[in-house]
Write a structure and sequence with these properties.
With 349 residues, the protein is α/β, with parallel strands linked by helices. The termini are far apart. The strands form three sheets. A six-stranded mixed β-sheet has the order 2-3-1-4-5-6, with helices on both faces. Strands 7, 9, 11, 12 and 13 form a five-stranded mixed β-sheet that branches. It has a two-stranded antiparallel sheet with strand order 8-10. The chain has helices at 36-43, 58-63, 65-77, 93-110, 123-128, 144-159, 167-170, 187-199, 281-285, 293-301, 322-338, and strands spanning 4-11, 28-31, 48-56, 83-90, 114-118, 133-136, 229-234, 238-240, 256-259, 271-273, 307-308, 311-314, 343-347. The chain is flat and about 80 Å long. The protein has eleven helices and 13 strands. Helix content is 33%, strand content 19%. The protein has two domains: 4-170, Glycogen Phosphorylase B (Rossmann fold); 225-347, no CATH class.
Length: 349
């Protein structure tokens, strides 16, 4: 039986190059499995070999998506593979975006099967689940022992050309593809059965899951703005010059808190944007366009508002997971509540 050749894609951390300080490394390849690839190889059949590993820094990839994807595809092609496996990325947003983009590029240009693994709230999963197969994983690398066998199982089925069942049966994220199948029980009977289970409070699985949207109840209106303390919060990435907290340009892993006591204008010499999802030229020329400190200082002077809070909060919304966005919002809200801030002006891009 001919050997099935596999290439594995990893970021700088799992590629054992380094942490965030190495996130800007350019793509390169090496022979055989690396890091989690060693465990992955043990789960693959004896005729399936990881012949090479391609590694790229998360920051470099997300700041140079097209060029990085092209270079990685070229490196993958050099191994003459039958299959590409990327990750798993769990809930690492930049890594997930890279895994998804690499899989899509390789699938389109090399015409070979691809598979990756991610947590369902990874922004890469939301963006690429309709294009490639993504094995559902836990939200951190602590789940690696469960993720690797699941990834290997689906990879083997894909490379052997086996017919796949539903996402629930195979363990991949639903791709929105609907297929006609013959069922022993007609639809009306199944629907009534599920309805009865729901009424009884029993567990049931719908055949057509609907999207779930959060409902946010609006807060009561501020009675007197002329006495209210307001705060500025932005997902537009406005930071002091030099980005002291190193907030990522995509899939931000943190937010920053910055003192604007006595600041009336955000100049290009002192502020900039860290955001990688829009043209930064106009924001870098005048950061007030995204974070209107100048306007609020004027309103403060006119006594149209009570005061502007001495600190503003910033992160980058580009590719940031819903879970992280909620976490940041809660933490920021708790701090502003302690400072007795009456209202928040939230700006994006």
């Amino acid at each position: 039986m001919a050997e099935i050749r596999v290439v594995h894609y990893l970021n700088q951390f799992f590629g054992q190059i380094g942490g965030e300080e190495k996130a800007d490394i350019t793509p390169f390849s090496q022979e055989g499995p690396v890091g989690p690839g060693t465990a992955l190889q043990k789960e693959l059949a004896s005729d399936i070999k990881i012949v090479g590993t391609v590694i790229c820094g998360d920051t470099y990839f997300n700041e140079n998506i097209e060029a990085a994807a092209d270079k990685i595809t070229s490196l993958v092609a050099g191994f003459k593979p039958d299959l590409l496996i990327a990750g798993p990325a769990f809930n690492a947003g930049r890594y997930g975006m890279a895994c998804g983009a690499v899989c899509k590029a390789v699938q389109e240009k090399l015409n070979i099967p691809v598979v990756t693994g991610m947590y369902e709230e990874n922004p890469g999963a939301d963006m690429y689940k309709k294009d490639v197969y993504i094995v559902k994983t836990g939200n951190s690398a602590a789940q690696m022992r469960k993720a690797i066998p699941a990834l290997a199982k689906l990879a083997m089925r894909l490379v052997r050309g086996e017919a796949l069942g539903s996402s629930a049966e195979e363990g991949y994220l639903a791709r929105g593809v609907r297929k006609n199948v013959f069922h022993k029980q007609r639809g009306s009977a199944r629907a009534v059965e599920m309805l009865l289970q729901k009424i009884k409070g029993e567990t049931f699985a719908t055949e057509y899951p609907m999207p779930v949207f959060d409902r946010v109840s609006p807060r009561p209106a501020i009675k007197d703005l002329s006495k209210a303390k307001l705060a500025l919060v932005t997902s537009g990435g406005i930071v002091p010059k030099g980005n002291p907290d190193h907030i990522e340009s995509s899939s931000a892993s943190k937010f920053g808190r910055y003192d604007i006591t006595g600041v009336n204008d955000l100049t290009k010499e002192t502020y900039e944007t860290a955001h990688g999802g829009y043209d930064p030229i106009y924001a870098n020329e005048d950061a007030d366009r995204v974070l209107p400190v100048d306007v609020l200082r004027q309103l403060e002077k006119e006594k149209a508002i009570g005061s502007l809070h001495n600190f503003y909060y910033a992160t980058v919304g580009n590719g940031t997971s819903i879970a992280n966005a909620k976490k940041y919002a809660h933490a920021i809200g708790e701090e502003l509540k302690k400072e007795k801030v009456a209202g928040i002006i939230l700006t994006s891009t």
